[in-house]
Design a protein that fits this description.
alpha/beta; 2 domains; six-stranded mixed β-sheet; ATP-binding; P-loop_NTPase
Length: about 280
């Protein structure tokens, strides 16, 4: 059980170093002593520009990036170097929603088959799986007959809903959301964010929410960490970090976001230039 002293996810002093592709090629230090905590039912945003290391941190949590040093602890258990069998068992508790809803779903499978796949992998009986699939489709706002259709028959926002349903199939306690709305238009983004908030209120799931958009993390995140060149440079409450940041880099991120007012936008550009 997660407590303030023992959070659901505890990342401590993580370093990720990729070796050079060729002999004598220099290695790449992707993460430098990164630490972060996420409590049960909490959303923590991880923001930064492309190449800052935020996706690498999410992959380290999922066991998809090599952790050179440091620890990743889930519910009091060290999963830093969990083996494949342990990772398979962990999939009940830790899931992921990827950025691109077009490539994250198998186009040759029906929605019903996509949602049944993680259930079958965990040995869930057929009748129980069918009931769970109907529950998931209702939870994400799709009709029951959507299960018989293919991903190509849905819009981008609907596909991302299906991807979220797949992540929810095993009732996880933590979902890594890797830029889950960046490929969607603004109105669809808002609907997906509202869905994630609604699901969290219903189930108590926690999110590690990776994004480059401060306005998005302001909307959904309780706390925010800002990453630059593999290091966390600022952390704090979501509304504070995304509106009154202290670190110059976070201020530049905020100033880089356009606003629909030419006068205010011109002033923002002037302030951004002064920070550069």
């Amino acid at each position: 059980m997660s407590t303030p002293d023992q959070p659901l996810l505890d990342i401590r002093d993580i370093n990720v170093v990729y070796r050079g592709a060729r002999w004598r090629s220099p290695s790449f230090h992707a993460l430098h002593d990164v630490s972060m905590r996420i409590g049960a039912g909490e959303t923590v945003g991880l923001v930064g520009e492309s190449g800052s290391g935020k996706t690498t941190l999410g992959r380290a949590v999922l066991g998809l990036a090599p952790v050179t040093s440091g620890t990743v602890t889930f519910d009091g258990r060290d999963i830093t170097h969990a083996r494949r069998r342990e990772r398979r068992a962990l999939s009940r508790d830790i899931q992921v929603v990827f950025q691109d809803p077009y490539s994250s779903l198998n186009p040759a499978m029906t929605v019903e088959s996509i949602l049944a796949e993680p259930l079958r992998a965990q040995g869930v009986p057929g009748s129980e799986a069918a009931a769970r699939i109907n529950q998931l489709l209702d939870q994400i706002g799709l009709e029951a007959d959507a299960g018989r259709r293919y991903p190509r028959e849905f819009s981008g926002g609907q596909r991302q809903r299906i991807a979220i349903a797949r992540a929810l199939a095993l009732k996880p306690r933590l979902i890594v959301c890797d830029e889950p709305v960046s490929a969607l238009d603004l109105s669809t983004q808002a609907r997906i964010l509202d869905l994630l908030i609604e699901v969290q209120e219903q189930t108590g799931v926690a999110y590690l929410f990776v994004s480059h958009d401060l306005s998005v993390v302001r909307y959904i995140c309780h706390r925010v960490a800002v990453m630059l060149k593999g290091r966390i440079v600022e952390t704090g409450e979501g509304d504070v970090v995304t509106s009154r940041p202290e670190h110059p880099y976070t201020k530049r991120l905020l100033m880089a976001s356009p606003i629909p007012d030419p006068v205010r936008q011109a002033e923002r550009r002037r302030r951004y230039a002064a920070l550069a």
